[in-house]
């Protein structure tokens, strides 16, 4: 008999069919307590699950005693209780490689649109305001040859450094737990403390996963260290930035602007003060959201689940210690 799998994300038809050749697929709309109780039998027998941003905690895992593998269509996995999965011997699979270049494009989009006020002035054009002429309050600031600080020099940080340094001639500072020889050799990137990076960068780009250590890494004291002319870019996870402190810093003119793809609460509440600010570009967590990359991520997650449930995991495993026991 084929293993049972809960699918809680819509996938392209060909990928759903691929899953069906291996598994007895049960498709549900979400992982809410209501959905779980309505499909209690399917959750009780499921050996695998595939989806993305929904919460997978101990309470849910208790309803899934047969679970052996979870596969997420994302690089980030802060919504999974990894210790709980590992204790139960459940492998967690993610998609760390296929989205790198696309997310770096998104970060560069935030850098450019925020610096050049592209969203704000495009809205003015649509409102017919070009007719009265362009005054200096339509002007932006340069990007080329400015200093870019990258916090978190992983794959995405590297792809961002490549664009910024080789494409825009930007000197690169980076802060990461360990030195990155390749970043230093290819992009002349300089390793420094977070404080130095904050003080010297014109663009502070956060490319970090959400962990206990990165939660509110950027709060009032860190924002106070940034230049008044600097722009903060967050393309990792919202709670890496203390959003209240960021709003206060922007309101006080302590920093020049912010380009954000992620927020403490998503979707961003419509009454957020960030939405009132013309020096803020807010994107709806679209870091990896292109047709090509979302397809490739879904295909990767499908392959990951097949590998995990057939005992052939070679890569993309978050808790490989489970495989050894
Ligand atoms: C998107 O944010 C991801 O983690 O893939
Ligand atoms: C971003 O979430 C990363 O892990 O590089």
Automatic annotation (TrEMBL):
Question: Which residue range or ranges hold the D-isomer specific 2-hydroxyacid dehydrogenase catalytic domain?
Answer: 5-319
Task: Return the Gene3D superfamilies for the record.
Answer: NAD(P)-binding Rossmann-like Domain
What is the reaction catalyzed?
(R)-glycerate + NAD(+) = 3-hydroxypyruvate + NADH + H(+); (R)-glycerate + NADP(+) = 3-hydroxypyruvate + NADPH + H(+); glycolate + NADP(+) = glyoxylate + NADPH + H(+)
One Pfam family it belongs to: 2-Hacid_dh_C
| One GO molecular-function entry | NAD binding
Which positions fall inside the D-isomer specific 2-hydroxyacid dehydrogenase NAD-binding domain?
A: 108-287
Principal location: cytoplasm
Q: Give compartment(s).
A: Cytoplasm
* EC number(s) recorded for this UniProt protein: 1.1.1.79, 1.1.1.81
- The catalytic residues are 237, 266, 285 (proton donor)
A single GO cellular-component term from the record reads:
plasma membrane
Similarity annotation: Belongs to the D-isomer specific 2-hydroxyacid dehydrogenase family. GhrB subfamily.
Assembly, per entry: Homodimer.
Q: Tell me, what does this protein do in biology?
A: Catalyzes the NADPH-dependent reduction of glyoxylate and hydroxypyruvate into glycolate and glycerate, respectively.
Name the NCBIfam families on file: PRK15409.1
- Please identify the protein, giving its name as recorded: Glyoxylate/hydroxypyruvate reductase B
């Amino acid at each position: 008999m084929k293993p049972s799998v809960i699918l809680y994300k819509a996938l392209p038809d060909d990928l759903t069919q691929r899953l069906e050749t291996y598994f007895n697929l049960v498709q549900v709309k979400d992982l809410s307590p209501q959905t779980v109780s309505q499909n209690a039998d399917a959750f009780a027998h499921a050996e695998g699950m595939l989806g993305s941003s929904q919460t997978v905690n101990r309470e849910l895992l208790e309803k899934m005693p047969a679970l052996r593998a979870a596969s997420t269509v994302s690089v980030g996995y802060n919504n999974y209780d990894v210790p709980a999965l590992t204790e139960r011997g459940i492998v967690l699979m993610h998609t760390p490689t296929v989205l790198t270049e696309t997310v770096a494009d998104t970060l560069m989009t935030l850098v450019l649109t925020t610096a050049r006020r592209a969203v704000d002035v495009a809205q003015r054009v649509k409102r017919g305001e070009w007719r009265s002429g362009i005054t200096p309050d339509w002007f932006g600031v340069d990007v080329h040859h400015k200093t870019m600080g990258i916090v978190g020099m992983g794959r995405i940080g590297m792809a961002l450094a490549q664009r910024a340094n080789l494409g825009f001639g930007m000197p690169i500072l980076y802060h990461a737990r360990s030195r990155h020889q390749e970043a230093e050799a290819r992009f002349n990137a300089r390793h420094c403390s977070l404080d130095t990076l904050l003080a010297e960068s014109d663009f502070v780009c956060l490319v970090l996963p959400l962990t206990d250590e990165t939660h509110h890494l950027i709060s009032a004291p860190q924002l106070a260290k940034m230049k008044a002319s600097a722009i903060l870019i967050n393309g990792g996870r919202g709670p890496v930035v203390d959003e209240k402190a960021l709003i206060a810093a922007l309101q006080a003119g302590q920093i020049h602007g912010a380009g954000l793809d992620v927020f403490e609460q998503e979707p961003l509440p419509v009454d957020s003060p960030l939405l009132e600010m013309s020096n803020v570009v807010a994107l709806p967590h679209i870091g990896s959201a292109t047709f090509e990359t979302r397809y490739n991520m879904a295909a990767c997650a499908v392959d990951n689940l097949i590998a995990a449930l057939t005992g052939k995991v070679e890569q993309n495993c978050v808790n490989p210690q489970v495989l050894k026991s």
